[in-house]
Amino acid sequence: MDIAVTGAAGYIGDLLADALLANDSPIKVASLLLVDTIEPRMRSDPRVRTLALNLTAPGAADQIVTSDRQILFHLAAVVSGHAEADFDLGLAVNFDVTRALLEAARKRANKMRFVFVSTVGVFGGDLPPVVLDYTAVTPQTSYGVGKAMSELLVNEYARRGFVDGLAVRLPTVSVRGGTANRAVTSFASGIIREPIRGECAVCPVDEDQRLWLCSPKTVVKNILHAGTISSTQLDPWRVINLPGLTATVGEMMRALREVAGEEVASRVQFVKDEMIARMVASFPPEFDTTRANHLGFIADSNFAEVIRIFIEEEAKKK
Amino acid sequence: MDIAVTGAAGYIGDLLADALLANDSPIKVASLLLVDTIEPRMRSDPRVRTLALNLTAPGAADQIVTSDRQILFHLAAVVSGHAEADFDLGLAVNFDVTRALLEAARKRANKMRFVFVSTVGVFGGDLPPVVLDYTAVTPQTSYGVGKAMSELLVNEYARRGFVDGLAVRLPTVSVRGGTANRAVTSFASGIIREPIRGECAVCPVDEDQRLWLCSPKTVVKNILHAGTISSTQLDPWRVINLPGLTATVGEMMRALREVAGEEVASRVQFVKDEMIARMVASFPPEFDTTRANHLGFIADSNFAEVIRIFIEEEAKKK
Fold first, then answer.
1. What share of chain A in percent tops pLDDT 70?
2. Residues of A in contact with B153 (CB under 8 A)
3. Would you call B237 and A87 a contact, using CB atoms and an 8 Å cutoff?
4. Percent helix, strand and coil across chain A, each rounded to 5?
């Protein structure tokens, strides 16, 4: 199949590209276009082509949604902290780019699978203790608003028969490799990753803040799954809350202590940042993902296991 | 106050203009700009100015949201049947125009009250028997999608402090005066209005189809109320399901028979239109509007009373 990934220079996009090119990929890849604002990492694989492209530029969408493209994984985004700081850029990337890609897909003769990577950050405000598949989306961040509007369009373009689209809402991904980003949930990886690497980390939220988490490995498996499942079984609403696990920051720290020891865990310092704490508190920490489970999406077993896998991956890089 | 109304040539927009200019208006009007694609009806009132304007044209929003404007009632819309037939026009008017008006409002030095008139048509798909204030919005019409995306933006522009905005979701308005429009719920007025005027009417849905209804008079009162209430009591979600009453088409017909007699009621013929019936069935017929009631929005007492008022209004015109 002929695949494209936007946001391919990002941490998840890069892992997704690797997973698509792996021998055990559930999708047989004939060609893979990797797109991002900066040139994504090139692979020594003849199927791969990379493209540095400003997705907000006129005509950019048509360079990605060519007539032979069969699946688009649209991951490119301006993350939460960045979208809150730059409202216009946030809306341009998180909404207008999605719309342009959907329009490009609509113009084609044949329907393309369009996997939109959304976020639990669409939720916010007065939420029930456990978010259900049909809990209302009342976002309290600009990031969540751009993603929520995009979800509505993805479902609508699918309903109108313009694309074979669906959207998956990712939990907070932890433990991310790489470096900190401008997501307000960046600390959820930082407080594990940095201490393991021997560095100090600052946690901007309280120990009792609960988070809805998923490991990078599991998230990538779920995004791939979204590329292959029959989306007709999702009608009338092609937006799915992905599985995850709930943990407080305190529980994450205990898991770190258990797996990596007291010395490593002591490298985390708690210095509250009111703005970050407020935005993180607006994201829901617990979900009932009956629908996603039924559709074959998966979750991690426990957070200590997630940390163990992260440590193994880090060791491989050395 | 300096007020503007878009969609002012429409049935509700025209009534709203009258209500704003009336002596008992809850808003003291210093000047009133009435805007629509066709020139709204001129009044012999020095406070009124009318403007025929294509709202999708570049710069149109700036002609409406001038620096002295204090309240904007944004009613202009491409209705359900029309938006389903013309996807691009629907999105352009129901979403892009709202966005342009919000952007124009954001550029001003002082915050403007922005009342966005939305619809229960944002709901659709797998709905609970009674829609609650926090029921998820999963629209199954292009009209609902444009309105739902606009609601997200109105709330966001308010949250960011760009406007003093709120959105009110109107029930199906019945009995509308005037003539049929391209809303798929147009029949909900037609099956009452036309027989009373001595004309025949066709009902495209079954007798047991339930509808969420509100009279024009009550809807206008609620829109005016949205112009004056303190919107800060709405945070974190400035979108309100307005009160209404639930009736089946059969119950509406019985009320017509009761108020206007058998001969009048016999002028309605049932000829099912599958496309209309499907879209109407996707709209929710019953709501719990605790929040709106608490905020001082009102409902009609019963549908027979609504018909009686309609007959009185028709008689006055003669």
1. 100
2. 145, 149
3. no
4. 40, 20, 40
- Domain presence at residue B72: yes
B220 vs B313: CA distance, rounded Å: 15
Q: Do B160 and A142 touch (CB under 8 A)?
A: yes
ipTM for the predicted complex comes to: 0.95
CB A37 within 8 A of CB A95: no
Judge contact between B203 and B211, C-beta under 8 A. Answer: no
A64-95 in b/e form (b: 16+ CB < 10 A) is bbeeebbbbbbbbbbbbbbbbeebeebbbbbb
CB contact at 8 A, A17 and A5: yes
pLDDT at residue A179 in the model: 87
> Shortest CA distance to A115 belongs to which of A147, A72, A76, A155?
A72
Instruction: Please give the residue range of the domain that contains residue A36.
Output: 2-171+215-241
Distance separating alpha carbons of residues A245 and A223, to the nearest angstrom: 17
Chain A CB contacts of B87 under 8 Å are 160
Cα B62–chain centre separation: 23
Nearest-by-CA chain B residue for A84: B160
Stretches where chain B sits below pLDDT 50 are none
DSSP tag of B93? I
Domain with A198 in it: what CATH number?
3.90.25.10
- Count of domains observed in chain A: 2
Are both A7 and A34 inside the same structural domain?
A: yes
Query: Is residue A228 located within the same domain as residue A98?
Result: yes
- B67-112 tens-digit pLDDT: 999 999 999 999 989 999 999 999 999 999 999 999 999 999 889 9
CA-CA distance, B168 to B297, in Å (whole number)?
Answer: 10
Tell me the residue type at B222. Answer: N
Cβ atoms of B41 and B14 closer than 8 Å: yes
Q: Which of B65, B49, B70 is nearest to B3 (CA)?
A: B70
Query: pLDDT-based confidence at A109, cuts 50/70/90?
Result: confident
CATH number of A103's domain: 3.40.50.720
Instruction: Give the type of residue at B89.
Output: L
Residue A180 lies in a domain: no
Closest CA to B219 of B69, B79, B98, B115: B115
For chain A, the residues whose C-beta falls within 8 A of a C-beta of chain B are 87, 124-126, 128, 134-140, 142, 145, 148-149, 152-153, 155-156, 159-160, 236-237, 239
The answer to whether residues A227 and A240 touch, using CB atoms and an 8 Å cutoff, is: no
Are the beta carbons of A173 and A157 closer than 8 angstroms? no
CB atoms within 10 A of CB A255: 20
Using a CB-CB distance cutoff of 8 angstroms, which residues of chain B are in contact with residue A84? none
d(CA B69, CA B1): 8
- Give the angle A214-A219-A222 at the CA atoms, nearest 5°: 130
> Which of B227, B207, B226, B223 minimizes the C-alpha distance to B215?
B223
B143 in active site = yes
Check if the beta carbon of residue B31 is closer than 8 Å to that of residue B47: yes
**Which stretches of B107-234 are DSSP H helices?**
142-159, 187-196, 216-228
Q: Which residue of A has its CA nearest to B134?
A: A136
Q: How far apart are CA B318 and CA B316, in angstroms?
A: 6
List the one residue out of B189, B317, B298, B176 whose CA is nearest residue B245: B298
